[in-house]
Design brief:
7 strands; 4 helices; two-stranded antiparallel sheet; about 30% strand; alpha+beta
Length: about 170
Amino acid sequence: MSSRCPEIVDPWRVSEQEQTFSGSVRLGDLPRLSPLLSRSEGTAEFQFVFTRDQYRRPLIEGHVEATLWQRCQRCLEEMPLKVDSKFTLVVVQGYDEAGQLDESLEPLLAEEGNVSLPELVEDELLLGLPVVALHEQCDAPAYDDEEISVEEPRENPFAALKRLKQTD
């Protein structure tokens, strides 16, 4: 992570001070994201603005941007995926408080009263990944029906037991 901002912040304190953090984090340093990528080099740029909402709850307005590389599941070629995520999160202390939020608000559970900025970047990048990476148009190999061979059906191994049972 860039040296311009801390990795872990107290959202209540920095929201009271209305602080802004921006920087970049290396994609290879994100342990949950990097195994899902075909290339883990590159960086994600981020900006987080901490303020308070009308109920004095910590509010994070964020922007995360990165180009991620995955393999197309149709042609198996690498493809870039541009993630440009803007979001607003309300920091909560527990699941009860999160359940009381309006449905239009996204809760962020602050574990041990702190928020990890790299984990927040990683969460947004993970949410930006498609379920299955596919090119819109790609040169996937075409298969002829003749090339695909189907094995002859094998006899069910329990059929012999059934025959033995019927002879008794």
